[in-house]
Amino acid sequence: MVTAAADPRDLTGTGLSEQWVAELVERTLVEDLTGGAPLPSAPDLAVAHDVTSAATVPAAQLGTADLVARADGVVAGLPVAARVFTRLAPGATLTASAADGDRVVRGDVLLTVRGPVRALLAAERSALNVASRASGIATLTRRWVDAVAGTGAVVLDTRKTTPGLRPLEKYAVRCGGGSNKRMGLYDVAMVKDNHVAAAGSVAAAIAAVRERAPRVAVQVEVDVPGQAVEAVEAGADFLLCDNMPPEVLREVVALVGGRAELEATGGLTLEVARAVAETGVDYLSVGGLTHSAPILDLALDLRAEGAGSALSWSSRP
């Protein structure tokens, strides 16, 4: 198990910037609390937008809430969820019992927060949405990584991410043991059939990219072995082998002979993942890691303190 950070909000090693996370937390809370109007900077004024909690919970009441796994999986997004809570309850105390990348089982406590009950309840859904989404991606990614373990193939994500959540979702893939090859259109050139048609040939397309962006790696999408050879001879760094069955992938691996890295994609499922990885390709890229991952079921169990709070209750999604 990864050692939980002393400060559960710590972003060190996540690759997520302080500014981006702060903006995400704000957008998420605005969506839930104000419906689009700017969130008041004063936490108590922001919390007051939760009409149910403002009406039923005394302003001074304190409580302790456990973020709990309701299913087995891999955790991701805990530092972001922690920041959701402290945006509304700056003085809250947080204790992490798990860290991003940990495997957890149903019933495990991941994070404990103590602070004003109103604030904890106002932050609840936003924190759960962030952590459940990221943990679901990490959990699915780990299934793929486990499926190809020992083959040498690396599981990659794609650009098929939820708009506005790409940094978090790609971080979640890393938490699950996968990797990010391309964050966007700016860091790797991907030459597809339409680019080839516009440039006139694979060689012309690669040459044009080299001239305009000489420091950017060039990947070429290929559908058949002949295209793979043409792309390698034209100087491609990587080949994206689209919708090729294992027997064709093995042929491409032999033809390319290590002159370029090979990435299998298209039509991949967990059932065929290992057979594809054993062909000798370097990567399996799986759009479903981000566009089709179910959430990991998480919940918030609250224990209120003080008069009229003898009952504890569990929040369900």
UniProtKB/TrEMBL annotation:
> What's the catalysed reaction?
nicotinate beta-D-ribonucleotide + CO2 + diphosphate = quinolinate + 5-phospho-alpha-D-ribose 1-diphosphate + 2 H(+)
| Class in the EC hierarchy, top level | transferase
Cite the Quinolinate phosphoribosyl transferase N-terminal domain residue spans from the record: 50-135
Tell me, which GO biological process terms does this entry list?
Answer: NAD+ biosynthetic process; quinolinate catabolic process
Listed Pfam families: QRPTase_C, QRPTase_N
- InterPro entries (UniProt xref): Aldolase_TIM (IPR013785), NadC (IPR004393), NadC/ModD (IPR027277), Nicotinate_pribotase-like_C (IPR036068), Quinolinate_PRibosylTase_N_sf (IPR037128), Quinolinate_PRibosylTrfase_C (IPR002638), Quinolinate_PRibosylTrfase_N (IPR022412)
Q: Which domain of life is it from?
A: Bacteria
The question of whether Nucleus is a record keyword is answered with no
Q: Please list the GO terms describing molecular function.
A: nicotinate-nucleotide diphosphorylase (carboxylating) activity
Pathway(s) this gene product operates in, as recorded in its UniProt entry = Cofactor biosynthesis; NAD(+) biosynthesis; nicotinate D-ribonucleotide from quinolinate: step 1/1
Listed GO CC annotations: cytoplasm
Which positions fall inside the Quinolinate phosphoribosyl transferase C-terminal domain?
137-301
Q: Outline the subunit composition.
A: Hexamer formed by 3 homodimers.
Give the protein's biological function.
Involved in the catabolism of quinolinic acid (QA).
Please give the NCBIfam families that the UniProt record associates with this protein. nadC (TIGR00078)
Family, per entry: Belongs to the NadC/ModD family.
What's this protein's name? Nicotinate-nucleotide pyrophosphorylase [carboxylating]
